[in-house]
Design a protein that fits this description.
The chain is built from 10 helices and 12 strands. The chain is α/β, with parallel strands linked by helices and 301 residues long. Strand 7, helix 7 and strand 8 form a beta-alpha-beta unit. It is globular.
Length: 301
């Protein structure tokens, strides 16, 4: 059963905004707010504070998108750090400028959807807004544009005019895990490190290319594709079972990593959605692999 924002929640959100101005910055979303259906979005396209962001690759937006939505690519919200590690979170001031350009303010309800098949781009965008303190009023459209189109809902090539938004920074310190954090918490009780790369790369017995063999010591394997079904999240019970199978217990903290910090954001999103404390190891395998003084582990078959 998928739980989406109900009428009471939406009404309460609107009343709270009218009474108190912009929602308080900070905090995280939950199962009531993080995921919306195509039916919900169709009923709320005209909501005054709704900002719909179409996340995809260059050229996809121009081929057709949900009416009123604005284009965003992952390249708009990532940077390369001084050590040459790709797909890192930019400074908060830069992100505020980027999202302000597409109309996001501190009192927006942001809807993210994938244009074609890049769910990792959507979850990376969600994580970015979560790190900015906007996660509590950001939602992902389950199934994205493919689900929307499969139901014969309207698509347009019109580009809406955007009123620039002003964002106040409210950076959260419980979204990103750095290298030192991961090093300090290998096999730490209650902290579950999940490797979201392919099962083959997780278990690789030999180095290939520039990659060392194996994985971060103590990490369990959970390729993000296992959590998806035709572009949508699997039912809650199935996702809970997959996390339990990877060693995640109630009350644990989930730290996910992948190749460069994109795929792992799917597990970050799912863990938050299921009620776990979650972190993204942003440097991911690219950073760990580059530190040849750090150990790797090859799990027994």
């Amino acid at each position: 059963m998928r739980i989406v924002p109900n009428a009471f929640f939406i009404a309460c959100l609107g009343l709270c905004q009218l009474a108190f101005g912009a929602p308080a910055c900070g905090g995280h979303g939950d199962r009531n707010t993080m995921l919306v259906t195509t039916a919900w979005l169709a009923d709320h396209l005209k909501d005054p504070n709704l900002v719909i962001l179409a996340v995809g690759r260059d050229g996809e937006y121009e081929k057709g998108h949900i009416p009123g939505s604005v284009a965003l690519t992952v390249n708009d919200i990532v940077t390369q750090n001084a050590a040459g590690i790709h797909v890192e979170l930019p400074p908060m001031s830069q992100l505020a400028e980027t999202f302000g350009k597409v109309g996001v303010t501190n009192d927006s309800h942001v809807i993210l959807y994938m244009l074609k098949d890049q769910v990792t781009g959507v979850t990376r965008t969600y994580l970015t807004l979560d790190a900015m303190g906007l996660g509590a009023h950001t939602s992902m459209l389950d199934g994205g544009l493919p689900a929307w189109q499969s139901e014969k809902r309207p698509v347009t090539t019109d580009v809406p005019s955007v009123k620039r938004g002003k964002l106040d920074n409210c950076a959260q310190n419980d979204v990103i895990a750095d290298l030192d954090y991961v090093k300090s918490n290998l096999r730490h009780p209650g902290i579950d490190i999940l490797d979201v790369r392919s099962a083959g790369d997780y278990a690789a017995p030999e180095a290939h290319g520039n990659s060392r063999a194996g994985h971060v010591p103590g990490a369990a394997s959970l390729p993000f594709e296992k959590l998806m079904d035709s572009g949508k999240l699997k039912p809650v019970a199935e996702m809970q079972s997959l996390l339990r199978g990877a060693g995640v217990k109630p009350g644990d903290r989930v730290v996910s990593y992948c190749y460069i910090g994109a795929r792992a954001t799917v597990v970050y999103f799912v863990a938050r959605y299921l009620g776990y404390d979650a972190r993204l190891y942003d440097g991911s395998w690219e950073e760990w692999n580059n530190h040849t003084e750090l150990p790797t582990e090859i799990s027994a078959k």
